[in-house]
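Dear support,

Our group has been running a series of protein-ligand predictions, and this particular one with zinc ion is the one our PI (initials K.S.) wants archived with full inputs and outputs. We had some confusion internally about which version of the output was final, so please treat the block below as the authoritative record. The input we submitted was:
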Amino acid sequence: MPKLAKKSTMSLGRIFMSDCLFCKIIDGSIPSYTVYEDDKVKVFLDINPNNDGHLLVIPKEHKANLYEMDDDTLIYMLNIIREKLKSILSDKLNIDGLTISQNNDYGQEVKHFHIHVIPRYKNDKFPLASNCSKVEDVYHKLVG
Ligand code: 5GP
Ligand code: ZN
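Confirmed final output from the archive:
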């Protein structure tokens, strides 16, 4: 069976990859528990969290990995974490810290650039699996 070529199109002025899970989350064809969104980024809960409140921050423009990212968008994303997400997580989930990670190529499951923002709680089991609450319940705490 021949492999289908990856299809990139422009949607609302942005590059959109038709076979990309996170592009589909951006356009709403795959649902997500979105915690923050603006014209440049989307932030939603990871479906398989390492800790309660594990967020993924993604650019709306499709970029596969760190090497394709422009400086301005990277700085913008870090500022969203520092200036918006930290206070939401502190206020709503009472976190004790934040671990930020980002995978490229090997170890990267979804080939659309994303930053993991993982809340830390005193005595948590991170990076081992912890007993996470249902993502839906965490979402209601965060946006409720
Ligand atoms: P990576 O390994 O690429 O750094 O991380 C990809 C992350 O995306 C994983 O933590 C995984 O749980 C998360 N993920 C995979 N599919 C979905 C999905 O359909 N929805 C959400 N919200 N997260 C997903
Ligand atoms: Zn994408």
